[in-house]
From TrEMBL:
Topology term for the membrane: Multi-pass membrane protein
Name assigned to this protein: TRAP transporter large permease protein
Compartments where found: Cell inner membrane
Function description: Part of the tripartite ATP-independent periplasmic (TRAP) transport system.
The keyword Cell membrane belongs to this UniProt entry's keyword annotation: yes
Protein family according to the UniProt entry: Belongs to the TRAP transporter large permease family.
Subunit structure: The complex comprises the extracytoplasmic solute receptor protein and the two transmembrane proteins.
Organism, scientific name: Alsobacter sp. KACC 23698
Positions of the TRAP C4-dicarboxylate transport system permease DctM subunit domain: 11-416
Pfam name, any one: DctM
Length: 428
């Protein structure tokens, strides 16, 4: 069996090196396994179909569609306006407002790329008008976008919950405290940079302005309250929340704010279907490859080796952080999760690590990869919006990784940061 696994790994890496898409190389590796093992090739499509036969996975295309609707309806403009009125008077106020807007927007879309694309343009424009360097404005926007997949709802949490058989509701709750800490840590960084670079302090626009922008964006600001309140009151499940959120976004765009037109809906649905097609392909081939790894007892073999090599749960989690950070720099987050969950989750279970805490650690690490070169998909998006080179963007983001890494270290060392809220509201 060891020789068989080595052969499959060689096929997989060879297909990647010749430029084959990741999902295709994973599917080819699965077919190679069943062929060389003397099994029927029909097993692979069966396992691929089983991977998609999951009720929670229905939430993924709906959350993607919701993000597209919110962006097309320009609802983010109202959120940014409220955040600017609320804390824009602080030194570095536009940067603080950008981070706060991302935290609010995170409670609506659950995607770093959607956050950066949806609110990035107006945030960067506001900061540049206030005299911020283009690279600084872009780096703050990119760093704040990573909050999107941590504060619920979150597409990576849905994928992790489905793949690792963990409660999505508990994962959503577990992301609240780390998400808030990410925002606060970035604001602390802004306070330091604002003094060093001499950012001007904006004039306080008055409580009337705060009230006016709050009322103007009230229904948009209530979206996270509606979603979380409905889920944790038992009115609907996390999966059903995606449908509720999509309908709510449609109502806001079409009838409340009237910034969305019916003729735009087909295009938004096609865009969501294209994005989901990529996600679905990865989930399906990862399900088949995961089955191959399972019957070859790769996780069962590697987990005891990891446990025997590492004696402390903290050392194990720190080692996982290093591995995931490196992987996140070279591989798309969802693909990396689907590959590593079958190996890392059983090992974490052996150390007694809560699967919810480990899920947050895994997602956090891989999301940081979206703002770190050489892949850095969020860096590509933001650099295009800001009109700067990818190289300049890559240099500017490095200091802003520091506060995020501090939060990552905190949730790694102190489990209650991720487990206390789910245990409080849903029981142990």
């Amino acid at each position: 069996m060891t020789q068989l696994i080595a052969t499959i790994a060689a096929v997989w890496f060879a297909s990647i090196l010749i430029g084959m898409p990741l999902f295709a190389s994973m599917g080819l590796a699965a077919f190679a396994f069943v062929h060389f093992a003397g099994l029927s090739d029909s097993i692979v499509p069966q396992k691929m179909a089983q991977a998609m036969n999951s009720f929670p996975i229905v939430a993924a295309p709906l959350f993607i569609l919701m993000g597209n609707i919110l962006g097309a309806a320009k609802i983010t403009d109202r959120i940014v306006a409220f955040a600017s009125a609320l804390i824009g008077w602080l030194r570095g106020g536009y940067a603080h407002a950008s981070i706060l807007a991302s935290m609010i927007f995170a409670g609506m879309v659950g995607s770093a790329v959607a956050d950066a694309a949806g609110s990035g343009a107006i945030e960067i424009r506001s900061m540049r008008r206030a005299g911020y360097k283009p690279e600084t404005a872009a780096a703050i926007t990119a760093a704040a976008a990573t909050i999107g997949p941590i504060i619920p709802p979150s597409l990576p949490m849905v994928i992790y919950g489905v793949t690792a058989d963990v409660s999505i509701g508990r994962l959503f709750l577990a992301g609240v405290v780390p998400g808030v800490l990410m925002g606060l840590s970035l604001m602390a960084m802004v306070a330091v940079v604002a003094r060093r670079q001499g950012f001007a302090r904006q004039k306080f626009q008055g409580f009337r302005r705060i009230g006016r922008t709050f009322l103007d964006g009230f229904f948009a600001l209530m979206a996270p309250v509606l979603l979380l309140g409905g889920m944790f009151s038992g009115a609907f499940t996390p999966t059903e929340a995606a449908a509720v959120a999509t309908l709510y976004a449609l109502v806001l765009g079409l009838y409340v704010y009237r910034t969305l037109e019916w003729r735009q809906i087909p295009e938004l649905m096609v865009d969501a279907a294209e994005t989901m097609g990529l996600v679905a392909a990865l989930v399906m081939v990862a399900g088949a490859l995961g089955w191959c790894m399972s019957i070859s007892r790769v996780p069962q073999t590697l987990s005891p080796l990891i446990v025997a090599t590492i004696s402390s749960p903290i050392v194990f989690l720190l080692a996982c952080n290093l591995i995931l950070l490196v992987v996140g720099c070279f591989m798309e987050a969802l693909a990396a999760m689907l590959l590593l969950i079958p190996i890392m989750v059983p090992a974490a279970h052996s150390f007694g690590v809560d699967p919810v805490q480990f899920g947050l650690i895994m997602i956090f690490n891989l999301i940081l990869g979206t703002i770190h070169p050489p892949i850095g998909v969020v860096l590509f998006v933001v650099s295009r919006i800001a009109g700067i080179s990818f190289e300049a963007m890559s240099r500017a983001i490095l200091p802003w990784l520091v506060p995020l890494l501090v939060v990552l270290l905190a949730i790694t060392i102190w489990p209650p940061l991720t487990t206390a809220l789910p245990n409080l509201l849903m029981g142990k």
